[in-house]
Amino acid sequence: MSILNDIDKALSTGSKSAFTAESAAGEKVRGPIVAVDYRQVTDFTTQQPATFPSGDPKMQFIISIQTDQRQDSEDDGVRSIYIPCWGKRKLALTEAIRESGATKGSEVMVPGVIFEVEYLGEQRVQGGPSGSYTMKAYRYAFTREAAQAADALTTAQSAPAQPSDPSGVPAGFDAATWAGLPDATKTAILAAQS
Question: Where are the annotated segments for Disordered (predicted)?
Answer without folding.
Answer: 153-174
